[in-house]
């Protein structure tokens, strides 16, 4: 019997050092530094270069995949085990106690953007793979650890990997970008945008709110010719938190949350639309606020649910207005019983503006009772942790599992822990970072030896 904890133990120190250096690289998508050699910006490219040098030194084969992904591989055999993690991170939002790219450690907790989503889990999987290689446990099967660079904006990186580069689909795979014990189903995700010309009150010059569709807007800015009327309204509504940025700009303050669980956040953009609608008698803004103040679709007559994947959610992630052009992006998540196009068409029938579907990624579902590799991963988690209470689940979030065949999300978020994903002071407990390594090592080994 292989003791996976024992073989991973010697890699803890170097794994932490690697993660710290990785976190210090700002890898938010950066349109300003995009080039042929850096299709997602210079930060993502720096991360790829850092890991490429590491993997070559450690004796792995690599493929830079036109700098859209970094493929790290080892082994020979018919079975291919795929591991899919990502190096891009969401923009920094909220008020941080710790430097977002400082990789600060306090009380055995590592803070920084990407610690839990998804650099920490990815580095854990890397050293699990290295432990297997160094101990001669990759025999008769192949392993590919693929780091993508554009997961947070819709996974164009992995689409390129499979569709353009024609890379082989895994026999079995997992992405360390979800929860333990494992996730066997994910809702579909559709981004749609309200877009069109509207003439608002001449006092409203500019609205800027949100940076990513899959995050609840925690800060919303409005630039006004004269802020007095708006300030007076806000002072009479103490439930709305705001700040005066300068003599013409106000900031509404909400609470960040992941776009798959918008009910846990406070959407500053929606609050701003409601306030502007009331102060300046703008029915379009009032309507949009009222429609999306409930994030389950109740107020747009589009609330649905299923036994397997749960209920619909609608997160307003981006709002912009300037020079008469209004744009608002909604991140819509739906179960397997819903036709997303039909729902958007229904919402369009009573929309004040044209609606355009930006992207749509269908749902994922594996029957946990009849799928061997699902049962294998579930058993590994239970045996390695001793946890017989927490069970497999479905989620509203979307992972790389939708882009690869025979792949599900397996960790690295342990039950009962809070990692502040997509929020301020994102973190990972070092206990969990280390604890996921033997789970991933055993998963790679057993999937590699699993009979079809």
- The residue fraction in helices comes out at 25-40%
| Average predicted local confidence, pLDDT | 96
Name the beta content range. 25-35%
Oligomeric state of the chains in view = single chain
Main β-sheet, spatial strand arrangement: 13-14-12-11-17-18-10-19
SS summary, helix count: 11
Largest sheet: 8 strands, antiparallel
Low-confidence stretches: none
What sort of overall outline do the alpha carbons produce when their principal axes are compared? globular
Tell me the distance between the termini. 22 Å
How many runs of DSSP E, i.e. beta strands? 24
SS-derived structural category: alpha+beta
Gyration radius (Cα, Å) is 23 Å
Entry keywords:
about 450 residues; alpha+beta; eight-stranded antiparallel beta sheet; 24 strands; about 30% helix; about 25% strand
Q: What is shown here, in short?
A:
This protein is an alpha+beta fold and 452 residues long.
């Amino acid at each position: 019997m292989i003791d996976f904890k024992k073989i991973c133990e010697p890699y803890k120190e170097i794994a932490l050092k690697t993660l710290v250096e990785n976190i210090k690289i700002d890898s938010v998508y950066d349109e300003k530094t995009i080039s042929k050699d850096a299709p997602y910006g210079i930060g993502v490219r720096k991360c790829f270069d850092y890991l490429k040098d590491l993997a070559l030194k450690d004796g792995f084969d690599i493929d830079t995949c036109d700098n859209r992904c970094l493929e790290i591989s080892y082994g020979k055999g018919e079975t291919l085990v795929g591991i899919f993690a990502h190096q891009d991170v969401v923009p920094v939002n909220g008020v941080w106690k710790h430097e977002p790219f400082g990789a600060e450690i306090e009380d055995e907790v590592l803070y920084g953007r990407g610690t839990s989503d998804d650099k920490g889990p990815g580095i854990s999987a890397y050293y699990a793979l290295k432990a297997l290689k160094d101990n001669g446990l990759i025999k008769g099967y192949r392993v590919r650890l693929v780091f993508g660079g554009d997961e947070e904006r819709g996974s164009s990186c992995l689409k390129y990997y499979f569709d353009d580069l024609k890379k082989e689909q895994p026999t079995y795979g997992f992405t360390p970008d979800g929860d333990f014990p494992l996730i066997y189903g994910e809702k579909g995700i559709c981004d749609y945008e309200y877009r069109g010309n509207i003439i608002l009150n001449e006092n409203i010059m500019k609205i800027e709110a949100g940076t990513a569709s899959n995050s609840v807007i925690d800060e919303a800015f409005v630039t006004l010719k004269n802020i007095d009327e708006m300030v007076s309204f806000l002072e009479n509504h103490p439930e709305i938190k705001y700040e005066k940025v300068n003599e013409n700009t106000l900031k509404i303050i909400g609470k960040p949350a992941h776009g798959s669980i918008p009910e846990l956040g406070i959407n500053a953009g929606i609050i701003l639309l409601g306030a502007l609608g009331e102060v300046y008698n703008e029915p379009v803004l009032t309507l949009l606020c009222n429609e999306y103040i409930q994030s389950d679709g109740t107020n747009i007559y589009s609330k649905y649910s299923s036994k397997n994947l749960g209920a619909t959610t609608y997160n307003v992630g981006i709002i912009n207005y300037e020079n008469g052009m209004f744009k608002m992006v909604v991140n819509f998540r739906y179960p397997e019983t819903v036709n997303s196009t039909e729902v958007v068409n229904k919402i369009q029938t009573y929309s004040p503006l044209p609606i355009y579907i930006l992207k749509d990624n269908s749902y994922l579902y594996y029957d946990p009772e009849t799928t061997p590799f699902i049962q294998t991963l579930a058993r590994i988690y239970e045996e390695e942790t001793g946890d017989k209470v927490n069970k497999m689940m479905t989620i509203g979030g979307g992972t790389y599992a939708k882009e690869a065949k025979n792949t599900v999300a397996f960790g690295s978020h342990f039950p009962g822990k809070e990692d502040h994903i997509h929020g301020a002071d994102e973190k990972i407990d070092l206990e969990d970072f280390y604890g996921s390594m033997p789970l991933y090592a055993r998963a790679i080994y057993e999937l590699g030896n699993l009979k079809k």
